Amino acid sequence: MELNNESDQLTPRVRLGRRLRRMRERKELSLRQLSEQVGGYSHSYLGRVELGEQLPSEALVNSLDGYFDTDGVLGELLEIAHASVIADYSRTVVSKEPEAERIQVFTSSLVPGLLQTEEYAREFFRRSLPGESEENRNARVTVRLRRQRILHQGKSPYYWSIMDEAALRRPVGGQRNMSAQLRHLLHMASQPRVTVQILPFAEGAHPMLGGGLTLMTLKDGRTIALVESFDSGEAVESPRRVVDLTDRFDLARSLALTDDASIDLISDYLKEYEDDCDS
């Protein structure tokens, strides 16, 4: 079935909403009547989806596709909408995550996206994208949490994260938010296919100050890379450049604390944040 016949100028979210409204109107249903047919989702929520003000959940889209018997069309539009909120420069690399055998990540001042709590991610997008609408920020959070599923599936990729100590020191969202984030970080670090290391302040300068790097090894043996700064990035597939970036990652890893020492440092920061919350 053709996905849509809307103008290419419309955002994927608006196109999805318009398609839903047309399907509802063909059945001559009000929003309240549709709500009753698809599990009681509020009519106001359905209205926001139709107006393109909010992305629907996957559960809602599955219910709608089933009710309208649309062979997954709304689900496909939701996939397109999710992809549209990922930065252009990183979309190619992010799309390969389900094919990854290993993901290695270095971040300078933030907990990496696949290890973030919902509250941490929400505050990050609120502060880093002040001019963006709340609806767009919410969509970004939804997509980030959805991507995290790859670390919980049966055969997840091996995930190796190195963070500058600044990621622990910076209280994104305040003390309580950071307490929850660090507890989640400790939980994830205890998983058999996740390694978390901290590059401490005591090491001084290192090869990746001020930037972020993702190295993704795919099932066919290729490694691709994503280099990021605060508002830009570049996907890298050239073997020569990937080797150079891998060398940088390895140098940072050589300066990082061991797994156990990293866990101890995260735990020390967690205690500080929890003490501040109690005081």
UniProtKB/TrEMBL annotation:
Transmembrane segments: none annotated. GO terms for molecular function: DNA binding. Residues 20-74 form the HTH cro/C1-type domain. Pfam families: DUF5753, HTH_31. InterPro entries: Cro/C1-type_HTH (IPR001387), DUF5753 (IPR043917), Lambda_DNA-bd_dom_sf (IPR010982). SMART domains: HTH_XRE (SM00530). This is Helix-turn-helix domain-containing protein. It comes from Streptomyces xinghaiensis. The lineage of its organism: Bacteria, Bacillati, Actinomycetota, Actinomycetes, Kitasatosporales.
